Structure formats: C-alpha cells, structure tokens
Amino acid sequence: MKLDFIPLDKLTVSPLNMRHGKKPPDVSDILPTVLKRGIIMPLAVRPEGEEGCYGVVAGARRFRAAQLAAEQTGHADPLPCAILEDGDDADAIEASLIENVARRDPDEVSQWESFVKLVRQGRDPADLGATFGIPEAGVRRILALGNLLPRIRTLYRAEEIDPATIRHLTMASKKQQAAWLALRDDPQAYAPVGHQLKAWLFGGQSIPARHALFDLDAYKGVLI
C-alpha cells in the first residue's frame, strides 16, 4: 500500500464499495468541514478502469463530500488516497466493511452481503469473527442472512419484513423461501410471519399452556 494524491476526476466509487449502486450518501454532517479544511483522512482506493483511474473502496462519503465541495467552490484539490494492490477483491471488500462499520453503519443487509462476498473470496468465518469482534457463531448467522433470496433481502431492506420473520426465513431452504414469497404475492393466500412462520416451516405449531394435562400452578419446571 502506498499513499498519493489523486485528482478528483480520476476517482469513482468502486463496485466493491458497500455504498456502490445506492443513492448518494448523506454528507450533510461532514460537508462543512470538507469545505473549510478539505479531505484530511485518506480514501482507500485501488486501480480500476482506464490507466491512472482508481475506484474508491472505502471513503465514499468523503469522496461525495469532495465532489459537492468542488461543485460549490469551482475548485477541486487532489484527494489523499491509500492505494491498495490491484486484484485483491477480498482486501477491498474488507476495507469497505471496516470503514462503514467504524463510522456510519450501512443498512444491515449491506453488511450481510459483504460478509458473504468475503467468504466467497476465501475468507474464513473464524478470521472474520476475529477481525470484526464477532463470535464465529454470530458470523455464521450473518452469512445465513446474507444468503437469503435477493428479493427477501430487498423486502427486509424496505422494512416490509420484520426481524423475527427474517430470522425464521434463514432456517428455510431456497425452495421454501420461494414458496413463502409466492404466498406473499397471492392476494388470496396468507404468508405466515413470526412464530407462525416457524410452525409453517417445520409442520407444527405451538400448543397453548392452558391445554396442559397437569396443574400449572403446582408445576415447578419450565414452560416452553
């Protein structure tokens, strides 16, 4: 990795950046500082596109603020950049995830998807847990969420699916997920949610405690 100053027009947001493809990030909190002091903390970039051009893998908000500052002032200073080695997608994805988790959290789904991308690039779940301070079991839960069908992830991102339902859907096969979506799309059908979804997936349902064949008041055990 080396440090250099790169002209603003030679930079774009990398496809490996967690904020790529989304609407421009809100930079209202940092724009006044950028207008007054410029960009101080280096962006993480890597060679992409034409010769001399780079993709921003971490620092998309600073890059956007620099663009707006240039539009307002009519002047664009080169930006300080830490240049990653070309071709290491896993390092680029990890740098973007670290940047976003440490500063302004991206939506949950973007984090899930980035963990999945890292595993596909060869990262071990145990190593990810050590990097981000998450137990390995927690990493595997995140991977299960990130591997849900794309439409289910989109619905959750739009807050059309509640957290309990999304957790239960991680226990569903891809075929079951597709069947659940079909129920949701059918105006004449009912797509189970929450604990009802768990019962639908595993073919059973909870039995109310009032049906117990013993005296509940005298029972000293645990009711589930």
Please describe what this structure looks like.
The protein has 224 residues and is an alpha/beta fold. Helices cover 46% and strands 10% of the residues. It is built from 10 helices and 5 strands. It has helices at residues 31-37, 60-73, 89-102, 108-120, 125-132, 136-146, 150-157, 163-169, 174-185, 194-202; strands at residues 2-6, 11-13, 43-47, 54-58, 79-83. Strands 1-5-3-4-2 form a 5-stranded mixed beta sheet. The longest helix is centred in the first third of the chain and has 14 residues, at 60-73. It is elongated. The N and C termini lie far apart (55 Å). The relative contact order is 0.10.
Q: Which characteristics define this entry?
A:
224 residues, five-stranded mixed sheet, alpha/beta, 10 helices
